[in-house]
Amino acid sequence: MALAAVAIVWSLPDRAFAQTPSAQGQTATNPINQPAQSSSAQPSTLTGDWGGLRTLLGTEGIYIRSGFRDEAVTNVLGGQQQSAAQAGQFDLSVTIDTQKLLGWTGGTLQTAMTYREGELLPINLLQQPQEIYGRGDIARLVELSYEQKLFDDHMTVKFGRLPEGEFNDFSCDFANLTFCGPPAGNIVGNYWFNAPIAQWAVWDRIDVGNVDFRTGIYETNPRDLDLSFSPGWFCCATGAMMHAEAGWSPKLGPNALQGHYQAGFWYDTAGGSDVLLDVTGRPFVLSGLPPLQTSGRYGFYLQGLQQITGTGVYDPEGDYRPRKESGWTTTKGLAVFFNIVQADRATATLDNQIAAGLLYAAPFASRPRDMIGLAIGRTDYNSRAAEAIELATPGVAVPRAEYPLELFYRFNVRPGWDMRPDFQYIVQPSGYVHVSNVVILGLRTDLEF
Questions:
Q1: Is 205 exposed, middle or buried (0-12, 13-18, 19+ CB in 10 A)?
Q2: Which mean pLDDT values do the consecutive 10-residue runs of the chain (449 residues) have?
Q3: CA atoms of 4 and 199, how far apart (whole Å)
Q4: Phi first, then psi: what are they for 237, rounded to 5°?
Q5: Do 65 and 448 form a contact (C-beta atoms < 8 A)?
Q6: Contact 231, 200 (CB under 8 A)
Q7: What is the pLDDT of residues 21-43, one digit of tens each?
Q8: Which helix (H) or strand (E) holds 114?
Q9: For residues 196 and 119, what is the distance between their CA atoms, to the nearest angstrom?
Q10: How far, in Å, CA of 100 to CA of 31, rounded?
Q11: Using an 8 Å Cβ cutoff, are 378 and 351 in contact?
Q12: Which residue, among 385, 375, 389, 388, has the nearest Cα to 352 in the 3D structure?
């Protein structure tokens, strides 16, 4: 699939890749935050200006974006056998500036869809090596929302069908799920649904200088995982997920280096099953009784990104493509990041995750669009869940923690086309000490049309 897409793109005439001078060397910006700019500020794409159509639509406040991401991987060391797998996602989004199109000041309409295909590398891991895989090889409505700015843009309200990952937001530069997207959804994905899943939701954000506060409520509905396309279910909710998040975006030192730090908390009223105890307070694997049901489940997180050299930009609106990138962009130089997330130990099989890494943009003067990334992490298997396994089968090995390391180089072939050779080294796959470490080589292709 990736090779076919590359071949088609390569055959396009050079004029399809032409940019205006003002767009050369610039990182793609979110069109939602640039409603008054001309098409010269549009992201660089493989298909150009569509013969002037993109410019015409932009003047009316209509912005269309689409792309394809492919992740091909193979385990060259470790695993029961050497295998290869490919997974990909096509995405399409339409953003409407209501002031331009309808005269509604401060409003934005957003809709986005994805279609996923492919297979996951058949290796047992706590965190999958292809972040793009999952939630079915089907089309999904990722977002259908309305956003309104209020009080001179100091307050933002948004509602509709939304991905939960607008909280605990993090970029997806890496292929291993440990380092991609909102970490909470990586460890409690049975009720925290990152894209491409969307839920009925509403949130608000208040911006005061370089500090922001956000609260939100999302419907908890198992039917959102159904493998049948629907613009949204109107029944079967089991509870509500409540979020609170505070962010700080300082510019530090004499060079005003951009940073962003945020902390948040969530609480889901749907509750869940205890991973160890039954309704009488004894281990359910011994009693045979049903697991204890909690009245709620919760967690908290702490995240940080900081530019060390060069320049970086943080935009709280993020990047509204369906793959929902973070609002952080390193345009040049070195940036560091960390993510810490902890879920409640009563209900979460994977109860915490820690990750840290480096991103170095424009590593060479002749390659301003390239990037190097390095990250290391730890995903913990809840010791209470491990105890249940050990009680069920005394003497059996139980999972502890998985430690992935990833290194990539993003090579920009042309504007709108990136290739990323990728190296992953997994220590204690699936959390088992006795299992041989795994080496995975991969190639990620990102196309923006």
A1: buried
A2: 40 34 29 32 77 93 95 94 95 95 94 95 96 93 95 96 93 95 95 94 96 97 86 86 97 94 98 96 96 97 95 73 63 94 98 97 93 98 97 95 98 95 98 96 97
A3: 34
A4: -65, 140
A5: yes
A6: no
A7: 222 232 232 322 333 333 334 45
A8: strand 107-118
A9: 16
A10: 13
A11: no
A12: 385
Short-list 262, 294, 285, 251, CA closest to 391:
285
pLDDT in tens, 149-179: 999 999 999 999 999 989 999 989 999 999 9
Angular region, 102: left φ>0, alpha ψ -120 to 50, beta rest: alpha
3-class SS of residue 113: strand
Q: Residues near 340 by Cβ (< 8 Å), separated by ≥ 6? A: 301, 302, 303, 352, 353, 354
DSSP string across 261-320? EEEEEEEETT--EEEEEETTSSBHHHH-PPEEEPS-EEEEEEEEEEE-SSEEEE-TT-B-
Tell me the longest C-alpha to C-alpha distance in the chain: 71
CB 156 within 8 A of CB 187: no
Q: Which residues, in sequence order, are bridge partners of residue 267?
A: 242, 298
Supply the CATH number for residue 282's domain: 2.40.160.180
Residue with tokens 């409520």: 217
Q: Which residues contact 301 (CB under 8 A, 6 or more apart)?
A: 168, 183, 184, 263, 264, 265, 339, 340, 341, 342
Phi, psi of 75 (to 5 degrees): -90, 115
- The residues facing 314 across adjacent strands are 328
Domain encompassing residue 357: 2-448
Are the C-beta atoms of residues 337 and 359 closer than 8 Å to each other? yes
Give the chain's radius of gyration (CA, Å). 22
| Domains held by the chain: number | 1
